[in-house]
Amino acid sequence: MTPRRPDREVAIVAFAQSDHRRHTDDLSEVEMVMPVLHEVQRRTGLKAADIDFTCSGSSDYLAGRAFSFTMALDGVGAWPPISESHVETDGAWALYEAWVKLLTGEADTALVYAYGKSSPGSVRDVLTRQLDPYYLAPLWPDSVALAALQAQALVDAGDTDEPALAAIAARSREDARANPHAQLPGARPQGGYAVQPLRTGDCPPIGDGAAAVILAVGDRARELCERPAWIRGMDHRIEAHSLGVRDLTDSPSTRLAAERAGAFERPFDTAELHAPFTSQEVVLRKALGLDDSVRVNPSGGALAANPVMAAGLIRLGEAAARIHRGESDRALAHATSGPCLQQNLVAVLEGETHAR
After folding, report:
1. Would you list the DSSP string of 166-181?
2. What 3-state class would DSSP assign to 180?
């Protein structure tokens, strides 16, 4: 099925992120978010009054209190009153909501931001709350154990092995040397097993961080950015909730989302994949049909910095930033949420050189 192209052009015109750190005990969530919001507005010259819609992504489970996102709104500013929404998931889905808002003509500009502080608690246990509440959650299988289950399925199927996973980790973190915001830049030893067959180097760092993007439509986007990153298509899909009925070596939801977003219409040069574990990059590469001609995670990806609830938005922001800088013409950006790549979002971004 040929994807239907939206009538309005929407682009990411600015992206900013924090320096990702293992601990931010000296900062509240508002203090962590505010510099990022100020930076992304500075890059466009927009003020709060110039932005038609604001949408955020975060998780109250990480914060340990209900409606914690309302406190982070202090970083946006209390005046003038704003049109605002929030999603209880990664900020990539907040970007999707804002994109739809702009496509419908209800807004011409939008601010999207996301943040997460994983350092105060055990994120491995917190993420267990995403599981089926009747069969899986009572067993408390943490996120690393479930990722190891997926990795072992890939090894058993002959899709990868431990040296190949180590090579993914080394490449990602070596690429992160060029990323001033990365938490773990530079290749490092794989370490002992976290949960076999995954070693500590196959797993993402635990840390805190925030990110923000600004979207704009048509000529407004061209006014705000020299080379906008046009969102040519975006879609998100979900796997079955029960892990026992899924083939963990494949991601049909990612493939379908990419198809509906128009990713397979012609080649792209860059892919920012939200793969917190090395084994998940193997699954995503297979689902998306990526070969060595595509530069995967030049930012270092989630293996170099993985602020939960912001890492997916960062993938879209990093892909857009490469287009802004002229380092990419057509990029794919992917975000995931849930255990073993349960929910997947794919966006196709292009520079001005590609006509619609």
Report:
1. HHHHHHHHHHGGG-TT
2. coil
